[in-house]
Structures are given as structure tokens and as C-alpha cells.
């Protein structure tokens, strides 16, 4: 197997939050060492890593030193700066590669790329001026959503426009950042697919999950989602096509909207392990975190068949205060991220409530 | 809940081998930080711990400093010196306590204690002289096994005596160490039970596993063992009785012999997580490592019901070279311990091969 890492090899992870922490735990189970790079000392992943480099992402000397000390580099967040990714890639294989970051960081690039590769999205228009926004609204109709092209997550940097009169305020809220207007998706279900591609091009996906967001934050997922085989096959085909087009290595999260007429649209892709895949930790023998590590290590992908069904419930802010009653719940498995300060809206942990398939 | 640790609390583990490593991984999933104490730098558990103290176990100042820095102390091996345990217990709750160590460290004390608390063992005699050995052989019959009372593991420090003429060589092999002669158990099955006791006195046990040893080393376990409910109930009753008598907090492994006539004898107890409980990692929602951490943290015990059956196969020495083919096996889950050097007889990892219940 060419380019495969040996057991005891070192994997570098850019970002030391809960996703980096759970990646590190899966890597450790496989005998691999993890080095974390994060600007915050004492970040959640640093406490389960063999080494942590505390530096800013734009400290390219530190990034180079970090990458030179490991056998492969991956990341837990899609907003890794292009210069950081390039500096890392000079010293170790970057998996997934820079193209995935480039596509995922800009909603306009992303939606254009998706549509070019068999993954349909809502209609959209680039917006750089108020006049452009007004023209886009005339074309796409209302309601529509204006979003910054870059750096949006958990519903930040978004404005719903219901009447033309709201256009000006919505445009002003973008603070001069390049934006995109998206047609409103009148969906009946939010779904997602967690798919992986190995270094050898093999693609594997978990059954889809059905998700519920509120206030722009994922609240819970249920998997496997009760959907038709046809819908499931179409989601897999779209994910496989996008993974191949990106020459992707690792796990990708793809958020989907299912419309009343059966149409499946891609909302967005995340070039990383994804909150809607946390259910795999306790309902599958190989979870999304191990799957990602296997791919990054150049190892064969694992089995994605679940042995249980799962309801994943995010513990957000003071939800986590209920940890003890979750521990007493027989079919619940508790995950806490080791964050020392509870803040409103902060993801503190999650619970997987297991059931029969 | 009195004496319960808070999330983000620190647990100290004496010993940083694979058991300490797997304990640390389970603690991390629950948001707890782990501090490892081990004489070896770069030991397997150190690479997933927030901090490691590298010092000899008889460096009582280092032990005191370690224990003072954590909220509870536990251990991954039964041969923690009494002075080390005492030094730790002065600064933090030691779970399980010193009595469990005292009983488990000496085969004579152990078998005497077990028989006093409803857990039958083979017949045995203390042996301090050759004449004593010969007298013991006359009483117990042959074959019989002479063992050092202390520091035996994986079949070390043992001699099988088949004829009276072998007594002298067997006694000489003990090197003057206090010994015990044990009657031969003509067992039909090697079983074990992994049981836990919480700080509140609650007891929970996993279904028994059937084990196969060879050359004194565990090779594989199968669980749940196909045994009668009566046998299972008797094993549970013995484990519960011993846990209570020891005022135990944590997970205990109890190795059992099932005789042809249905008699159940205890071979030995280990006051720690146990190799024959590794199957729980992938076949149960709460594994023995999480169960131990829950108990040590003063948290409620978890559900011990399996969702799958499992065959656990130890990867010993160069068995681990087959890691890649295990990764390709759909129903196998691979665990590697991150040991940098493969040596004959060394436990390098294990595999859980899952099946339906």
C-alpha cells in the first residue's frame, strides 16, 4: 500500500476543538500519535494529544515546523487560511487537499462547483452591490437568504429577506463583504450524508441522518433517516461525484434539503468530520472519526453499517448541566468535550441515545 | 451526589501501559482530564494524557505530588507497592482502595479472602520449605502447581508438579520466595466476569466471557459465553460478594474455572480493568474502561448489556504485523496500543470481531 502511514506514525491536526479531540481519540485507538496546532493553549484536543503547538494560524513558520514534525496533516475546520494550508502541504501530505478548502470556504465557489458536478443546489446569485441584490431578488423571488460568501457558520452572517423593502438593511448587515443571494428552499426534511474517500479512491458512506436545526445551530440528528432507497442512492451518488471531483481524501459532511416533490438539494459541504455524523460513534463499529483517520493515514476505509439506530442530541450551553441524568439513562451514551467554561450557544457535548435498527 | 467529581476534573492513573491508555481515552470521552504516573517516559498512556509524571513508584515525594494534583487516583496494575498506594491515598481518594491491592497481591491472602467471602477456589497450602511442599503435595495430590505468592502474571513464577520427584526442582525455581501450592483444577472452561461497584455500592457486571490462554497468556475471549443462567448467576453472586467485602470502587476482573460437575472456582481476581473485558469496547455501549472511570469519578455505573457478540483476539508480538488485513475485515475493530517496539510475548493490540447476539 503506497503512501500508507505505519502504526505509531504522527498525524497533525489543525484545530484543537471538540472535532480535533474526537479525531485524536480515534487516532489513539489505532496506535497513532497526534500533534495539535491551535492558537488557544489548553484547547480540548490538546489534552489528549502527544504534543500541541500553540500559535496563530498565520504564523507560517510555526505551521511549517508543525507539518515537518508529522507524517500527514488534516484539519477540523473548513476556514483554514489558504496560506496556512499551503505552508503545511509543503512539508507533509495535506488530507483533504487545498481544493476542498478552496471550494468549501466560499459559498459562491461551492455552489458553482456542486452544480458542475451533479449536485444540485438552490438557485443563487453573486451580490456585490445593493442594485445587484435588488436585481437578484427580482430573478430568484422572495423569500430569499442573503449570506456572506465566506466565514459563515451556525447561522452567522445570514439575513432572511421576505420583502424587497428589507433588501437595504440586509445588504448593510453584510458590512461590505462579498455576498450571495440564495433562493429559499421549501424543504420538508433536512438530511445529511457523511461520506469518505480513501487514498485509493474507494468511497464509503454512512446511512443518512435526519437533522433538526434551531437558531442556526444543529440540535439533534436521527439515523438512519427513514427515507426511500432511491433518495438514499441519489445522495450517495452526489457525494461520490463531489468527492471524486475534489480528489478528496477523508470524511466529508454534505447537508441536504429534501423537497416535497422528492428533489434533493445540497445545502453545503464541510470538508471535515461533521456534527451530524456524531451518531456513528456509538451506532457503528467504525465511526466517522476513525474513518477520517483511516483515510488520512492512507489506510483502508471501514465498515459503515450501523448496529443500532441513534438519536444524537447536542448539549449546547447549559444543556450540559444535565450530564448526570444522561449518565443514568440506560440507552444514552454521553460525550463531554472538556470545555472549562459553559457559554450560551457553545457546544459542550452530545448524547447518543441508542435503539434497535 | 456526594464525593462525585465534576466534569473537567482530573483523574490520576498509576501505570501508563495499554490499560492506562484505554482508561484515559474513556475518561476523555467523558470530559475528564487524566494525569499518568509511570517510570517510563513515552509510555502508551502518556501520549493521550494531559500530563505525565515520570518517576519510580517508590519515589514517594513524586507520588505525593502526583496525587495532590488530581481529584482521584486509580491504577492499571495490581502490583502497586503498598507504600505507593498509601502515599497517594493521603492526598486523593484511592479507588479501588488499599485493601483490594493487599488481597490481590498475594495468592495466599487472595485465596483465603475469597474462600471467606463465598468465592470457592482450588485447595491450596502455603509453602515455605521443601519439606512443607512435600507435605502439601501429599495432602493435595498431584498434579499440582507451585506458584510464588507475589508478583506472578502471564504464567511467570509458576511450576507444574506431576511427580513427587519434581518437587525439589520446583521449589528451587521459587528462588526462596514465599510460595503456594495449588491443587490442579480439572476445568472444562475458563471463564471470567468483569464486575464493577460504584461509590454508592451499586454493583453491575457484564455477561461472562469464555477465555483461551496459551503459554500463560490470554489469546482470545468470546462473549457472551454460552453458559447456563444458573452458572452466570453464581458468578455474579461471587463477584458481588467479593466487591462488597473489599468495599471496592471500580472495575474488577475475576477469572473463573468451570468444572465438569458445574462447580465454579475463582482462579484469581485483578483489581483493575482486565484483558478479558476488552470485548466490551465494541460490543457494549458503556465499556469496562468507561465503567471504571465512572466508578472512580463517583458517577453512576453504566448499562452492561451488549448490543453484539464479540470474539476478542489479542495481538501478541508479531501478530500485530497483520494490522492491515484486520483493517480490511468488515466485522473486526482494531485496537493498537502505540508501542514502538514489537517484542515476542508483548501485547501490541487486540481485535474485536463482532457478530449478532
* Mean of residue pLDDT values of chain A: 96
Q: Helix count of chain A?
A: 11
Q: Into which percent range does the helicity of residues of chain A fall?
A: 25-40%
Q: What percentage of amino acids of chain A are in beta strands?
A: 25-35%
How many domains of chain A, as an integer?
A: 3
Largest sheet of chain A: 9 strands, antiparallel
Q: Any low-confidence stretches of chain A, pLDDT <50, length ≥5?
A: none
Largest protein interface, residues of each chain:
A-B, 44 and 45 residues
Large-scale geometry of chain A: globular
Evaluate the radius of gyration of chain A. Answer: 20 Å
CATH class of the largest domain in chain A: Alpha Beta
Order of helices and strands of chain A: EHEEHEHHHEHEEHEEEEEHEEHHEHEE
What is the CATH fold-level name of the largest domain in chain A?
Answer: D-amino Acid Aminotransferase, Chain A, domain 1
Total number of strands of chain A = 17
CATH architecture of the largest domain in chain A: 2-Layer Sandwich
Distance between the termini of chain A: 35 Å
Helix-and-strand structural type of chain A: alpha+beta
The oligomeric state of the chains shown is homodimer
CATH superfamily grouping of the largest domain in chain A = ATP-grasp fold, B domain
Amino acid at each position: 500500500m503506497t503512501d500508507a502511514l505505519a502504526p505509531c506514525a504522527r498525524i497533525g491536526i489543525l484545530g484543537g476543538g471538540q472535532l480535533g479531540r474526537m479525531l485524536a481519540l480515534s487516532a489513539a485507538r489505532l496506535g497513532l500519535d497526534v500533534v495539535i496546532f491551535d492558537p488557544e493553549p489548553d484547547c480540548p484536543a490538546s489534552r489528549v494529544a502527544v504534543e500541541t503547538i500553540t500559535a496563530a494560524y498565520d504564523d507560517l513558520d510555526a505551521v511549517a515546523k508543525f507539518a515537518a514534525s508529522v507524517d500527514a496533516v488534516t484539519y477540523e475546520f473548513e476556514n483554514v487560511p489558504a496560506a496556512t494550508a499551503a505552508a503545511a502541504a509543503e512539508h507533509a501530505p495535506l488530507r483533504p487537499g487545498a481544493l476542498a478548502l478552496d471550494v468549501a470556504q466560499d459559498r459562491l465557489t461551492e455552489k458553482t462547483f456542486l452544480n458542475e458536478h451533479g449536485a444540485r443546489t438552490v438557485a443563487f446569485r453573486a451580490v456585490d452591490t445593493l442594485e445587484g441584490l435588488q436585481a437578484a431578488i427580482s430573478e430568484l423571488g422572495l423569500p430569499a437568504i442573503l449570506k456572506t460568501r465566506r466565514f459563515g457558520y451556525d447561522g452567522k452572517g445570514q439575513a432572511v429577506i421576505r420583502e424587497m423593502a428589507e433588501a437595504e438593511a440586509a445588504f448593510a448587515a453584510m458590512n461590505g463583504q462579498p455576498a450571495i443571494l440564495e433562493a429559499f428552499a421549501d424543504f420538508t426534511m433536512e438530511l445529511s450524508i457523511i461520506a469518505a474517500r480513501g487514498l485509493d479512491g474507494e468511497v464509503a458512506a454512512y446511512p443518512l441522518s435526519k437533522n433538526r436545526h434551531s437558531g442556526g445551530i444543529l440540535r439533534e440528528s436521527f439515523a438512519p433517516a427513514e427515507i426511500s432507497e432511491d433518495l438514499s442512492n441519489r445522495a450517495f451518488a452526489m457525494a461520490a461525484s463531489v468527492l471524486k471531483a475534489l480528489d478528496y481524501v477523508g470524511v466529508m459532511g454534505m447537508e441536504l434539503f429534501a423537497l416535497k416533490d422528492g428533489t434533493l438539494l445540497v445545502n453545503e459541504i464541510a470538508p471535515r468530520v461533521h456534527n451530524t455524523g456524531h451518531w456513528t460513534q456509538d451506532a457503528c463499529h467504525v465511526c466517522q472519526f476513525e474513518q477520517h483517520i483511516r483515510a488520512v493515514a492512507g489506510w483502508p476505509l471501514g465498515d459503515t453499517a450501523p448496529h443500532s439506530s441513534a438519536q444524537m442530541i447536542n448539549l449546547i450551553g447549559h444543556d450540559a448541566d444535565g450530564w448526570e441524568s444522561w449518565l443514568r439513562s440506560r440507552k444514552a451514551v454521553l460525550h463531554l468535550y472538556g470545555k472549562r467554561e459553559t457559554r450560551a450557544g457553545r457546544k459542550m457535548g452530545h448524547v447518543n441515545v441508542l435503539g434497535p435498527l
